[in-house]
Structures
1.
Amino acid sequence: MKEEKFNNLIHKIKENKMTSLEKSITKHNVMSFVHNNPIAVKKVSPKVKSPYYSSFSFGHISKLVGVAMLIVVLGIGGISGASASALPGDALYPVKTNIKEKIEEAISFTPEAKIAYRKRIIETRLQETEDLLNLNKLTPQTQIELNTNIENQTKEIKNNLAEIKKVRPDVAKFQEQELNQDIVIHRTRIDKLLEKIQNKDTKIEKNTLKTNNNIETKVQEIKNIKIDNHVIKQNLNTNIDYSSNTSKSLPKDLAPEEKLLLRKNQTDKTAKEIKIDQKIIPVKL
Amino acid sequence: MEAKNENLTESFSKAYDDFSDAIFRYCHYKTSNRELALDLTADTFTKTWEYIADGKKIDNLRALLYRVANNLIIDYHRKKKESSLDSLTEQGFDISTENTKEKYEDNFDNKKAMEAIQELDENYRDIIIMRYVDDLSIKEIAKILNEKENNISVKIHRALDKLKKILGEE
């Protein structure tokens, strides 16, 4: 029944059309428009070469500029790449910290990306400290600078976390946990590095002490040898001509005992001088 | 070139004979105004010819005609909305008389058919007319309404259900 009604409806709707008069009038109007507006012929104009065109035109210049830019980009990229392994004190280290790292920071737009970037920087600074220590090039000044950089990055990470916390507290909580873990790892690493530095210092001190002791022992030996020589000389020949001595000549009118005593004092003094001089020598490990 | 132009003119004339009634019906159902529907039908064909004369490629002339008609109807409704009732009254436009006149001009053979189809949502009404009155394919309807064929099929199914319910209640 419904189907029949539907077909009837469609049939009735189809009957709604223009009358033959309406149709012919409209067609007349439309076809008049068609005849008055024929298909447009598209004229393809040939390319005309500019009379001002020459071999020095912009086409060539733009190519040269392109090549120059490519060279500059590749050059910067090469220097930047080479600076990646630079350490404080190296010529390329400022390129690493002032250009490469600044660019990386600039292209880190979201707080999450900034946190990741700062973590990488902290890792790099720790690695640099270790490398410098291994190369025996870590000065107190460099150590302070590297530590300050690590502290600054950690502060910035905390600021970024605060930003994330405003929008997505759950993500911020996760990042905070990660950061705390990283801090523990970094602290352990810093402690080990400090221990390493202290061990090196202790070793230096020990070596210095050992060297000084060696020098003192040597001096003492020399002193003893000299004293022994004098005793032997005194025993064998009391009439030694001290004027032939290469060191300091003694007065001729002195008694042999007095000369011996004076010579002993001089020897002691020389020994002391040697000891003092040896202490000044820089100790190389 | 002239021969090509002649061929196209002939094809276009034939297209008018074949599709003008369907376009008129479509415009009439969308505007409920016979005179306006006649004008929109003429405009649809002239606009389409302008498109052809401009050298643009056409895949389906029938679908293009519906699309042009649809755009013209949208423009008409937009303009109608813009001219406020106050300004029309100021110009001496008698709303009640005009509406009455429109009513009398809607001289459908079957008033009930018009009422039933008007009870459908606009989207469903267009689709039912295109599919069952003008015998357009689902692909052509999809192209005219810029929708996916699957969506059109689903809409046809829903529109039929609604229409059958309307007819059942009568």
2.
Amino acid sequence: MGRKRADLLQGTLDLLVLRVLSREDLHGWGLSKRIRQLSGDVLEVNQGSLYPALYRLRDRGLIEGSWGISPEGRRARFYRLTRAGQKEVDAEQENWRLFTAAVERVLVAD
Amino acid sequence: MGWMRRWLRRIRYLVFRSSEEREMEEEMRLHIELEAEDLIRQGIAPRVARRRALLAFGGVDRHREAVREARGVLWLDQLRQDVEFAFRSFRRSPGFAIGAVLLLGVGIGATTTAFSVVNAVVLKPLPYPAPEELVRVWPAAPETGALRRTFSVPDFRDWRDGSRALDQLALYSDLPGAPVLTGYGEPEEVPSVYVSGEFFDVFGVEAALGRTLAPRDDVEGFNRVVVVSHDYWTRRFGGDPAVVGRTLTIDEQPFELVGVMPPEFAYPNASADMWVLISTIPQESIPTERRFVRFLFAVGRLAPGATIEQADEELDALATGLAERLPDTNRQLTAATVDPLLDVMVGNARRSLWLSLVSVGLILLITCANVAGLLLARVGERRAELAVRISLGAGRGRVVRQLMTESSVIGLLGGGVGLLVAAAGSTAVVRLATGLLPRATEIGLDGTGFALAVVLAVATTLAVGTVPALRGAGDGSGARALTGARGPLSRRSSSVRRALVGAEVALSVVVLVGASLLVRSFAQLQSVDPGFDTDGVATMTMTISGERYPDRETYMQFYRAIMERIERMPEVEAVGSLRQIPFRGAGESVDFSIPGVYEPDPAEARSSQYIHVGGEAFAALGVPVLRGRSFDVRDGPDGPPRLVVNEAFQRRFAPDTPLVGRTVTLGSGEAEIIGVVGDIHQRSLDTPPDATIYVHQEQEPRIGMGFVARVAPGIDPTEAAGAMRRIVAGIDGDQPVTEVASMRAVLGDTLVRPRMLTSLIAGVGLLAAVLAAVGLYGVIATLVRQQRREVGLRMALGADRPRVVRHVVHEGMAPAFAGIAIGLVAAASLVRAVEPLLFGIDPYDPMAFVAAAAIVTLFALAACAAPAARASRLEPARVLRED
């Protein structure tokens, strides 16, 4: 039971990361900032939790990282969606919609 | 694909660990700095901003661990730590690690070698297509009890053409006289197999180069074709492919070399270098077209779907038909015997090999028990360390994993050493066993055997290294071990260790009983009196070339010239000749009767051995003439036919009648018995002497012969034999000599096989005893260490040193004696299996059991000696103050 919930949360964070990266390449902090902005600061995740997700996605080949210079003029690793990552976003986005719709229906029925 | 990438990542991570870690840290630091700068831009004081950024990030270390975990490298990482830690702890106690690794290595190596041999020789199918269809076929004479007789060519043709259950049938024979190859350097006898045209088709084997012999070659005028072995081709022709198609001069006749067999083809044995068609043997030398000339073997292939029983039944009927139709030649051969080829090839070797495998397997068990004991002792001694690690917060699972890693590392290192031992072992076996063991060339290091041995070893170390450790880690005794400077003696683990040692002793007794039986049996064999002198006798074997000396007159002249010159050698005291020198084959056999003494019904007639002798054969071999006289000049080619018989002949056919002066009726006519000589073991030491008739070479010549010469005292018979070879070369440089050797060496050859098995099993037995003693030593040494205080106390209370020694020895010998008792009982129930390998002793031979028990007792006492001495040297005052 506990494990399922963890997976769900993890999966959600993965989806957010992939979705944001599908629009632009970002480094770690930029990504974290963007998620906060886009969610209207509702999704205030523990910022460090982003990194396990990033490394996991990178090991799965969904994103790739390359070192470059950030807008702030600092050396940083930029993450970019791979083709496999794009497919994953499309599929997961669809799943997410089905999932939230289902949850929504249950909530409304109550 | 995905999993592969993940694994590559993980490995990359481990390899480039430091740079990956650095990058991760850099990323996280940058994140926090950027967050802080962002907060500062929003107007927050720098110091506060930095703290809030750190807080929002939520603990760098925690996330770093999470990253590792997310990447699935955490356990790999820990494994690396564990392995490193294991090696560190081995460095602290190298004795333990080296001991355990070597023990396992020897056990695994020996077992793998033994398994490799058994697998190659007994278990693995023969290296031919559909090997289960291959059979050996024999004519049988059930009335005389001879179920495996030889074929003649006409019999073979009738069987081959009449059988449906057999798809194919072929004849072959390796004759003692090998044909001579000339024109390629020195004339040379080539060990050859004479075959019928179907031979290679039966096996279904193609030539490596050129072609094999085929039935269509087996036609007069086209049959002078030969195939050579791969080995011979490399040795003699330098592996030159161009020799195929070339003409060779064999026995002064031209033969075309049509093919080279692949290296793995070695039938009927590995010494076969050339295959020649039987039909090329001149009828004058062996009348192969005569039905009673039976000296050939047959190998066949069952028709698809046919069984051995069907073939047997069908061939029985065929044989009975022939016996009725041709009573003169086939009266006795009324049946057939059909055996699976593999069974015939492996034959006696099967039992010796299984015995070796079982003995060596017991060694592996002893080894595992030994290593188990070592690990138990180590865990007992490491309780304090484990307790410290647990109390410092190491998870219990982590500690167990650490111990398992240690055990696996030992098991795997042992496996590595074992692999080296096995590689050396199987190479040595191939070298030693070629010619002694069937299929020796097929032996190679066997992966299955090795895997089995390693799995067993690792499983043992894991089970033993972990379970007691777990108990130690969890039950608080470790904590006690910490508080008391010395841990309380774990009664349970030491009783387990004693049981293990008892088991080791029992197993070693079982192996040693088997070994003692073989040693005793070998001693019996060696003490058999062969009936002739083996010292001071030189021998030379040859077959006079039928092409160069085509008739009796010329070859007998040659023979006499050789005899004369050997006789003139100053170092020779007496010289003679025999059709076959002892241990190199039996003579011919002959049907006979002695009018008035032995006149059997033809159906019950027993034949006698029939051996041609010349010169002073009996004197040269030191065989006594018991009654009458031996052959001499009176028994020349023109003299009346005369015979000598041996004591066994007298006992068997005329126990109560003096035979000297009696007339014997043979197929060739009548002859008078002039003397009776002592028995000799003609065939081998372990077969009793046959009833034998000796006939004079001058009266009934043979071209195959062995010369025996008694040399003067102080002369080396091997050198004399070399001089005899030079005599032959001096008369005719193109006449090859098959073998020269001292009689002692000939005897030695016959003992090689039993000696090899005996020394192997004896070695294994001693190894078992040593291993059991090592195990016992380990237990006693630990015990003495653990009981220092108790012993010191006893001594302080007045126990004298002999008493301490007695106490320690008692502690050690109790499990040893229990093990010996169990081992003797177990051995008694198992010895039946060795019985067929024994000569001249009972499997329940009490001496063997006593010897095994005595050897183990001695080793056990030796194992107790050092710890007992150490205990008796303890200074009570010092020991008691230690704690």
3.
Amino acid sequence: MNLDAHISEGPLAEQWSKHKFNTKLVNPANKRKYDIIVVGTGLAGASAAATLAELGYNVKAFCFQDSPRRAHSIAAQGGINAAKNYRNDGDSVFRLFYDTIKGGDYRSREANVHRLAEVSVNIIDQCVAQGVPFAREYGGYLDNRSFGGAQVSRTFYARGQTGQQLLLGAYSQMSRQVTLGKVEMFPRTEMLDLVVVDGKARGIVTRNLVTGKIEAHSGHAVLLCTGGYGNVFYLSTNAMGSNATASWRAYKKGALFANPCFTQIHPTCIPVSGDHQSKLTLMSESLRNDGRVWVPKKVGDKRHPNDIPEDERDYYLERKYPSFGNLVPRDVASRNAKMVCDEGRGVGDSGLAVYLDFRDAILRDGEDVIRAKYGNLFQMYEKITDENPYQVPMRIYPAVHYTMGGLWVDYNLMTTVPGLFALGECNFSDHGANRLGASALMQGLADGYFVIPATIGGYLADLPYDKVPLDHPEFKKTIDDVQNRLGKLLSLKGDKTVDEFHRELGNIMWEYCGMARTKEGLEKALGKIREVREDFWKNAKLIGTNGEFNITLEKAHRVADFMELGELMIMDALNRNESCGGHFREEFQTPEGEALRDDENYSYVSAWEYKGDQAAPELHKENLKFDNVKLTQRSYK
Amino acid sequence: MNLTLKVWRQKNSSSEGKMVEYKAEDVSPDMSFLEMLDVLNEKLLKKGEDPIAFDHDCREGICGMCSLFINGRPHGPGEAVTTCQLHMRSFKDGDTVFIEPFRAKGFPIIKDLVIDRGAFDRIIQAGGYVSANTGSAPDANEIPIPKDIAENAFDSAACIGCGACVAACKNASAMLFVSAKVTQLALLPQGQVERKNRVENMVAQMDEEGFGSCTNTGACSAVCPKEIPLDNIATLNREYLKAKATSDNV
Amino acid sequence: MGWFLSALSSSIGRKVIVSLTGLFLILFLIVHASGNFTLLNAGDDKGAAFNAYSEFMGHNPLIQAVAWITKILILVHILQTIYLALVNRKARPVGYKYEKPGQSSGWSSRNMTFLGIIILVFLVLHLKTFWYVVHYGEVPFVNGDPSQGKDYFKLVAVAFSQPWYVALYLIALVGLAFHLWHGFQSAFQTIGWNHPKYTPMIKTIGKILAILIPIGFSTQPIYIYLLTN
């Protein structure tokens, strides 16, 4: 298979304009003849649904939540990057592009990332026009902060709830289109399969989560905006319902899955408190602007943090990375936290935590200033841990947060199944092996507001207006497949709950395919995961029927897919004999313990093709070319 | 600690529900309330009983999906929290905990503790937006907005649409929810063009959904996880009266 | 006209009617209570001032017009609130099994209908004793002498010499106090009169009125009772 990204020739900065010009257009009067299916209503999905409807397409939008406003984009805290250079501090589209490529450890496409940086400025304009209440300065102009290891202040924010405000903006635009009759909304409806007719994506099969009704929807194109797959790890900062089913089903219908092993572990999360833990809570990494990360110098030092004198504290990030200090990128911060905990210097009951200390910041700026900046985060921390971070250092530990991998897409955001597009976290395209802070919101909205509206026409322009009727054999067959799968799940009457399997899967993934990976461990994990899978299909316990609101069935279907995806993640991690970004193979590190890339042999996107349940997936490589940046060892010293 | 739970069980929207008693044993104070229910559900499932259905998603207090009327209060005891942020250390060993769904005509029960809050979406669809087609926006800094106005707008925009305001109100009124969106957009320059139509249409939709009227008890704001101020309702009233008196809609 | 009716019949419109009528009735209460202070002179003038005041109120055409408006507004206030109370009950067809509303709102704000009913019962009794007798019954003359005019004070003195009647008055006034405690500031909230500077002032004034008006009224039956017994 030839993986052609369909990038226009020419200088980097002109590629997007040129591409738009070269893309066929659909006549305004003909747009209403096309039906677009949008799955997921987060930033990518809601913005795409609204914008495509504005253009005149008929949109059907689906989400599993009770309202599109609840998609997990809502939980993003820190902010959104844009190369506005409002601060006059030397920012530019090229610098944002460069930072993103470098931050991704040179495993993303130049053209995609440059486009992202280009449209970032339009996103801010668009959101402000919608009434998103971004933070402002006294003069009334927009405020910016520096975020996630950037040397310029380009992050726009709305207190600690930027994701919420941006999502509500996109949701409001979509709501408007619902009233105008251009978007039909299907809440509490989960996509369970993709319908491919003559090699093209022509519809989906869904389950109504309230009634259990299995339904088919026909359309001219299908947009997957279904987010990431972090919940493979059981514990992550993802929402409880976040799942990979839509993209996994697409994979099984011929869409290639790219870089599945690239997962981001976020350094500032609240540590696990016990076996009952159902999810992890992230605290914005903006905290690292003022908090200092440390552990005791001595192994097994169990003294109260406030009793440990200054010279017995190891501010390890400041020590190892004097120029970036506590603001090193996420992957570096997370890995270092794991290293000190592995040395036995972790804190808290579990020993799996490090301190994030605001003592010095409070002494320097006063408690009021710190409260004004981080009050809501401190409050959240106190609610969860019952400890007052103004007096006792916070305990933090890394947690799975974001997945850079996802469905392979070309420059048009189209997967290898024609007519099937993937937007936002669901695709693999822009963040390489590591995502910079405040870039997820940027990408989701870039894809939805500005990229897909420009590229989808190129595909649709050649498509007949007729929809595939729902009685087409392929629709019937897909419905049957879904019903059989659900029937098989419901027939499981073992003695273990789905959550128990999910936890087992999560433990394997975290242990062997988490922050640090080895060939040996990954191979072991492969065996273990297969055992769990086998066990699942024998001993899982389900209850009830399909014809009702059945939370056990919902979960079982998602976990079954997670188990298969977990296996592919491990295979990908095994294949990539290098360390880059979020993928750290212990065998491949510099003498100082930093990630050691192998640009010679691994400067490619690994894209996996499904070959049947019994066969091994086939690896395809899209080689990455870097004409505009020089590949360097990332250094934050 | 050990607790007695009295939970509303209802098979589906058309069946009758009742309170059913369960024991929650060995509850850790560090658990969240929903984790306590997770553990109970695991036990029920093992016994072959139907687990208790409840809505939840982000579990960090921002998506607005979790609900629950716990011991006579939406989202349980504690100020400015959602149920998912409520921890078991708020309870004592031996406590009896009553768990019910948010109840309102506008929020029909789907199953057990799960409710349909589609009415809120329909209210937003009626006008809770600024009509701004993608691509038509001027530069973001072309409209300076005084910091305090932006902050006030944010206070209202922080609404997560959970419905606690309706659940707490003795009249099941949705005024705080509606007023939050109306206030946010009435404060901002972007919201001026559609200001009058917005409030007229949103209030009409609110009334159509069968929510009660506001009697200013203040319960909504007191239980609001995002502490949306009660004076938003005064703003809504003012906006509505002004719009009715001066708009072109006859 | 359609827009006007639709505005008035919306949930907000109906509340505005309740607020405006309520505010007018508060004004009426203040005037009524002040006028009745003439009773407190009865120890010296045997009710002469009160009789003069009553005579004036009963025959001044302007006052009569206002009286009719008041009656209509009282009726509107009652009917609207009953309607809203019924609609609001329907907004939650299945109630909570366990509810502790005191955690989030004040008692009087939740019991305006109940308090209103107490006031209504009182009103009926009050009208029967005084207003009905004045208009349709026989008011005695001062010292039995028609040339000295009607002795309205006598009516009052007879009524307030009975302990149960005074007690009933006092109960109703407590109800009124709670009704006003919430009602005054609530009315301003409903008509959208809200301002960081003035709202706290309105709230304070509301509480002062909620205490002063009932105290003002209560001095009269207590004083007369002590005078006559």
